[in-house]
Model the fold of this input.
Amino acid sequence: MFRDRAKSVPCHGPDPQTVPGLKADPVQADVYARHSHGLEEFFRALGSEPGLRVLDWAGASQASISFITERGFRLYSEDFYQLLETHFGPGDWYAAQQDQARAARFLEQTLGFPPAGFDGALLWDMLEYLAPPLLEAVLTRLYQIIKRGGYMLAIFHADERVERAPVYRYRIGGPDTLWLSLRDMRRPAQLFNNRAIEKLFREAQSLKFFLTRDHLREVIVRR
Done:
């Protein structure tokens, strides 16, 4: 595996109330736009062949559906965060994730797809909210359902001191633009520095990092 680390690029921050320059979407005041080099790189790497299949863990939104299907791709949307709440809440998420029976049901519902069924996956920041055993099981399934040579986009908080992190609903506003709306504040199961991310994706062919000024790491993973 080799690592391709991009230079830091300016992006707007995860807290729309405190970061200057974050622009509100004109339709909804609680939706904010940020530039995303990771999103731009994901679709550039994926290519333009019609019929490519993309898994989106943000849940269905008309903006993302329109953007992806207009490229001739097929989209499968799953609200991964809502499924976490359904299977492991209320209460201590991370303790509940240790229950093997509940974890197995969760895996079957969220990732019960045929092998090599997807060319790419938009994981967003969801990997941070998985306890280690479930995280490893999820990654194993992802490697099974994403074709070799396919791509994943994952986002990690770079501030390792944070106690609670904003959980956003992600929508695609354009080739390099994400629309974010805050849905929750939650303690991550764990936070990842670059070395930990490399270890996490040790089975991948390559990683490409984009460290932004808003303390997020966008990572392109080549399966």
Observations:
- The chain is about 30% helix and 30% strand.
- The CA atoms of residues 111 and 187 lie 24 Å apart.
